[in-house]
Design goal:
about 350 residues; alpha/beta; five-stranded antiparallel sheet; flat
């Protein structure tokens, strides 16, 4: 397991990233709130790699990198920042031998993968010359633990193994057996395996052989019927508005189950997606419009509106600088980080103008 020194002055970001990276099983996070604290920890803690923000009080990231360089510290280092990486800054980072640069707000899933690739490459491998079915059977026989990432036709699925047992599967829209069957049905997949990684939950309890046999049966039925894969995303283009492209970006937020873009005042749904199990966005969009109208009666600026339910988060945010149109995002509480999702939705909303 990689001992990762995480340096960020934002308490929320530092805490959220620490919890998320610790849960992956590939990292043990040592948090520090600025560069000076990081240098102090390096004297007392065993550190294998560093992930640091650049803009911080007391000692910023660039000063920390300079200090590490002068002291001859040769650990793998990655940088995350919300500022633009211009030519001079890029040159300085290259001079310090930075392994990777991430833009804020970071996607935790992508961050964990890329950090493991660049900071602990011996635990990551791309698989060629073997079918996905064959690879999974090999993992079972060898009693391996880790994460298998499968990509095909711009889709991504994840299969988690614990000592040779398939315990969890998910795609962007599905969990458990449904996700496993979908992944196993993708043609010509590219496969990458991340050892040391673990699942946050167990959603598959059937044996691997049962899962593979059922997946093969479903593939055979699909081939015989000439079945055409149906898209789960069906945006309603009610007006001449780029709702589909905005919704596509919204669905990239980790844990997204569905979303709607709604015209303030009329409540007209300009576009919608519903990819969660049985989720319908029409009624949530109507409720969101009622909440928006109530919030607009308050004598203050509305940043976002949030609802926390038993299994879902609902986040409502205006698109662009005005209040003519808003997006209503529904998140799975088990898979989503509410704070990260709010940051990502805010960033997306700022750059949209209806």
């Amino acid at each position: 397991m990689t001992n990762l020194l995480l340096v960020d002055d934002d308490d929320f970001v530092r805490g959220a990233l620490s919890r998320a990276l610790n849960r992956t099983g590939g990292f043990t996070v040592i948090p520090a709130e600025h560069g000076r604290h990081a240098l102090e920890l390096l004297r007392t803690e065993r550190v294998d790699a560093i992930l640091t923000d650049l803009q911080m009080p007391v000692m910023d990231g660039l000063t920390l990198l300079a200090q590490l360089f002068e002291q001859g510290v040769r650990l793998p280092i990655a940088v995350m920042t919300g500022q633009l990486i211009h030519g001079e800054l890029r040159h300085r980072l290259q001079a310090y031998g930075i392994a990777a640069v991430f833009s804020k707000p970071v996607d935790v899933v992508s961050l964990a993968d890329e950090l493991q690739r660049v900071l602990d490459p011996k635990t990551v491998g791309r698989i060629t010359g073997v079918t996905l079915f064959g690879l999974l059977q090999l993992l079972e026989v060898e009693r391996k633990s880790g994460l298998v990432v499968v990509e095909a036709s711009q889709r991504e699925g994840r299969l988690y193994f614990d000592e040779g047992t398939l315990v969890h599967a998910h795609t962007r829209h599905l969990n458990g057996l449904e996700a496993a069957y979908e992944i196993l049905g993708w043609p010509d997949p590219a496969v990458e395996i991340f050892y040391k990684r673990r699942a946050r939950e167990r959603t598959v309890r059937e044996s691997l052989q049962h899962v593979l046999m059922e997946a093969a049966r479903l593939l055979d039925e699909s081939a015989r019927s000439g079945g055409v894969e149906q898209s789960v995303v069906q945006p309603d283009r009610a007006e001449d508005f780029a709702a589909d492209s905005i919704l596509e970006e919204v669905l990239k937020i980790d844990g997204a189950l569905g979303a709607a873009i709604v015209r303030t005042g009329s409540g007209a749904v300009l576009g919608e997606v519903a990819v969660g199990r049985g989720l319908k966005m029409e009624r949530p969009a109507q409720i969101a419009e009622e909440l928006v109208q109530a919030a607009l009666q308050l004598d203050d600026r509305v940043e976002d509106i949030m609802l926390t339910l038993g299994k879902q988060y609902h986040v409502i945010r205006f698109l662009g600088p005005g209040q003519e149109v808003f997006v209503h995002l529904v998140l799975d509480r088990e898979r989503a980080s509410l704070g990260m999702a709010r940051q990502q939705l805010a960033k997306l909303a700022r750059h949209q103008s209806p």
